Amino acid sequence: MNTNEQISMVGLRFIPLGRVVFFLSSEFELEAGIVVEVEAEGRMRRGTVVIAPSQVEVNQVTGELDTVTTTIPSDG
């Protein structure tokens, strides 16, 4: 990975107090609390952003990352 490369990642939780899983945030502008949909473990799953892109340090994350597929509109 090129260290000059800008990478935008978010940390998601699929269940409250579950482990944080990192994903590429793609073209979406995401912040904590936004619900998104990702393909994880071979299926589509909804997760909540708990670590915004500005809070992720690249050295926290290893391996290949999947990408956020879409955001889910809030109900109000």
Description of the molecule:
The protein is mainly beta and 76 residues long. The chain has one domain (9-72). It is 0% helix and 38% strand. It is built from no helices and 5 strands. It has a 5-stranded antiparallel β-sheet, with no helix packed on it.
Rounded average pLDDT: 83
Number of DSSP E strands: 5
Which structural class fits the helix and strand makeup?
mainly beta
Rg is 12 Å
Low-confidence stretches: none
How many DSSP H or I helices? 0
Shape: globular
Q: How many independent structural domains?
A: 1
Main β-sheet: number of strands, strand sense, barrel status? 5 strands, antiparallel
Measured by DSSP, the beta-strand proportion falls in 35-45%
- If strands are numbered along the chain, what order do they take across the biggest sheet? 2-1-4-3-5
Order of SSEs: EEEEE
CA(first)-CA(last) distance:
40 Å
Q: Helical percent range?
A: under 10%
Task: Summarize it.
The protein has 76 residues and is mainly β. It is built from no helices and five strands.
Topology:
Elements: E1 9-13, E2 21-24, E3 35-40, E4 43-51, E5 68-72
Antiparallel strand pairs: 1-2, 1-4, 3-4, 3-5
Summarize this structure as a short list of keywords or feature phrases.
0% helix; 76 residues; five-stranded antiparallel sheet; globular; mainly beta
